[in-house]
Design goal:
The protein is of the alpha/beta class. The chain folds into two domains: 319 residues, ABC transporter type 1, transmembrane domain (ABC transporter transmembrane region fold), CATH 1.20.1560; 235 residues, Rossmann fold. Helices cover 64% and strands 10% of the residues. β11 and β12 form a beta hairpin. α8 packs parallel to α13 and α17 packs across α19. The chain starts with a helix and ends with a helix. The N terminus is likely disordered.
């Protein structure tokens, strides 16, 4: 076991493993902007090199004046002082421009690009992924993790361009100025960099846990506030708070350890740099006294030695931050690398009559637990087909298969004789209008919500659909009528009224096939009867699948399919099935039994 784990640990602690290399590849499209940043970094390095040289020359001039006492000191120093001031001013302007460029161009485009890619990726993932993944975790990856990844641009530029390049240039100038004083500085610098890289990798495992727990915290908070009334109703606030506190404490601890291991690098670098600075100062003093080295030369070397601390500290910070960024990148790359569902390019041939054939279909969410087994049905155009059965029998699963939210494991589903597996999912779903038991409204006006599936619809068409769904009367009683802004959490409309709006949405879409999954579960009996009449009138020539537990709502269906344990055990009209006194008879009579 130990031998197996060691290679994994070594691989995990490499500074630029596959995740690091992939981050570098991801910024290739931004190489033009990064080259501009590199050019600005070169200007900064030039300023950093010029300033000590100018200062050393001024010191030599001042020292010469103290010995000769010439009257033209100001004339001798002013040009150098003006040039030095110009160098520092240029350095300040370029530093600001570089930071502005990195923040407002490179990082922003990098961040926006990743979020667009993640959004597009989610559209290509199977519905099963969202069924199994908390929405809060997905949101955390798109917002928090991508935001942390964008910061990697700073680290990469600082480490690979500014820091190392400046360090090499300063080291070369130190040797050119005085090789004897350069030796202690150059000997300690590689030790500082190696120590930074080694210590930077220690915090990666803590950052991995930190970001993973951050996703769980976001998911828990999203779940709690989405279901806030239920939480309050069952007095589960304390338990929820306890769960949140436990996760938050673990999240905090891993963040503390990660920050500690990242932050401890910089003090160590400063300590080693201070040793080099002391060594240069002592050696420089000895060289002045014993070897006659000019004071200005020693001052120049000391300033360069001090300037070497800046790139070393940036390198230390960058190397420590790389692990922080890599941990966020792993979660983003994991989502981007998920296998996508295959989607053929077939299109629907108009017009669609609406015949649906299901032949020997098998399907299960879990291979160990078969659900749909050898399902067969032949639905003729314009028929109203009711699907009934006990909870868990597979009624909603049939809808998921028709909409291709899930793909069948065997068998065939055909619409107008064409296998739906040959159609693109978008084309397949254009055939269906759908009303689910769980309503969904987005933040927008009532008219925009009704026209969600038909954005080109006119106001007159929207109002007609609402009148047919018996919701026009309460819409006109709202503060701004059809222009009233509502949302899923809105208290302006009741649950039953939300259901009516989603039915109006389906009616307005005017698709050849209609699916109603407990569509009238949230309306009162009188409204339910009115909707049934409206549906019967408006669904002429359309194929309709109705899933219902309240069997009184489907007594007028053309065909009733009774599902039990994933199989059709009975089928026929309401009167025929009652006459058989089988399973349907038991279901129907049980709803009226006292």
């Amino acid at each position: 076991m130990t031998q197996t784990k060691q290679p994994e640990q070594k691989e995990k602690r490499r500074l630029f493993d596959e995740t690091g290399k992939r981050l570098l590849r991801e910024i290739k499209p931004l190489r033009g902007w990064i080259l501009l940043c590199a050019f600005l970094c070169l200007i900064l390095i030039g300023c950093a090199v010029a300033a000590p040289e100018l200062l050393g020359d001024l010191v030599n001039r001042l020292y010469a004046w103290t010995r000769n006492r010439t009257p033209n000191l100001a004339r001798s120093l002013l040009p150098g002082l003006g040039l030095l001031l110009g160098v520092y001013l240029l350095q300040a302007l370029v530093t600001y421009g570089n930071a502005f460029l990195l923040n407002n161009v490179v990082s922003r485009f990098f961040c926006a690009g990743f979020r667009i890619r993640l959004s597009e990726k989610l559209g290509r993932l199977p519905v099963s992924y969202m069924d199994k993944t908390p929405a809060g975790d997905v949101i955390d990856r798109m917002m928090e993790d991508v935001g942390n990844m964008a910061d990697s641009i700073y680290g990469i530029v600082e480490i690979l361009i500014s820091g190392f390049l400046q360090m090499l240039v300063i080291a070369a100038i130190l040797f050119f100025t005085d090789w004897r004083m350069a030796i202690p500085v150059v000997l300690l610098s590689p030790l500082s960099v190696l120590l930074s890289a080694k210590m930077a990798t220690l915090g990666e495992k803590h950052w991995d846990k930190h970001f993973d727990l951050g996703g769980k915290l976001t998911a828990l908070a999203e779940e709690a506030y989405t279901n806030y009334p239920t939480t309050k109703a069952f007095n589960r606030e304390a338990e929820l708070q306890t769960r949140y506190d436990e996760l938050s404490l673990r999240h905090q601890r891993n963040g503390i350890f990660g920050n500690f291991l990242s932050s401890i690098v910089q003090p160590v670098i400063i300590f080693l740099d201070a040793l080099a600075y002391i060594a240069v100062a002592v050696l420089g003093g000895w060289l002045i006294l014993r070897r006659g080295v000019a004071i200005g030369t020693v001052v120049t070397v000391i300033f360069f030695a001090r300037q070497l601390s800046a790139p070393l500290e940036r390198i230390a910070f960058g190397l420590s931050y790389v692990q922080h960024v890599k941990s966020a990148a792993k979660r983003v790359f994991t989502l981007l690398d998920l296998p996508e569902e295959a989607d053929p390019a077939g299109i629907v041939e108009a017009p669609t009559r609406g015949r649906v054939e299901i032949s020997h279909v098998d399907f299960s969410y879990d291979p160990e637990k078969p659900l749909i087994r050898d399902l067969c049905m032949d639905v003729q155009p314009g028929q109203k087909v009711a699907i009934v059965g006990p909870t868990g029998a597979g009624k909603t699963t049939i809808v998921n298969l028709l909409m291709r939210f899930y793909d069948i494991q065997s068998g065939q589903i055909r619409i107008d004789g064409r296998d739906v597996a040959e159609l693109s999912r978008a084309e397949n779903r254009k055939l269906f209008a759908m009303v689910l038991q769980d309503t969904w409204l987005f933040k927008g006006t009532v008219a925009e919500n009704v026209a969600y599936g038909s954005p080109e619809a006119t106001r007159e068409e929207i109002e007609t659909a609402c009148r047919c769904a018996y919701c026009d009367h309460f819409i006109r009683q709202l503060p701004q009528g059809y222009d009233t802004v509502i949302s899923e959490d809105s208290t302006v409309v009741s649950s039953g009224q939300k259901q009516l709006l989603t039915i109006a949405r389906a009616l307005l879409a005017d698709r050849p096939l209609l699916i109603l999954d407990e569509a009238t579960s949230n309306v009162d009996t009188r409204t339910e009867l009115l909707i049934q009449k409206a549906m019967d009138h408006l669904m002429g020539g359309r194929t309709c699948f109705v899933i219902a537990h309240r069997l009184s709502t489907i007594v007028d269906a053309d065909v009733i399919l009774v599902i039990r344990e994933g199989r059709i055990v009975e089928q026929g009209t309401h009167r025929d099935l009652l006459a058989q006194k089988g399973f349907y008879y038991e279901l129907f009579t049980s709803q009226y039994r006292i």
